[in-house]
Amino acid sequence: MKKEKNILMAVLAYCGPLIIISYLAAKDDSFTKFHIKQALTIIIVGFVLSFLSMFMFFSVGIFFGMAKMALGIFMIIGILNAAQGKETELPFIGQLAKSLNF
Prior knowledge:
Layout: H1 7-13, H2 19-26, H3 30-53, H4 58-83, H5 93-98
Helix pairs in contact: 1-2, 1-3, 1-4, 2-3, 3-4
């Protein structure tokens, strides 16, 4: 019998702090783990961009704002992919997420 995908936990991974619940509840599910890694990568990149934007001039800060908006769009795409049961890599984020090992 094929193992059922844990779609709810995969979607919750993209909802900020709820990533912890997803990890604790379904860390052994490869589908959920794929989405946890992508969501965690988005969160980490977002924190780094926020930190760096505090030290930049206004014109460069606009670039960081646009990059953070792109991360928000990636979150939405990730949620949609998880809800549809897909394991589709997000642009840029997917390659970074592969390097996470847990």
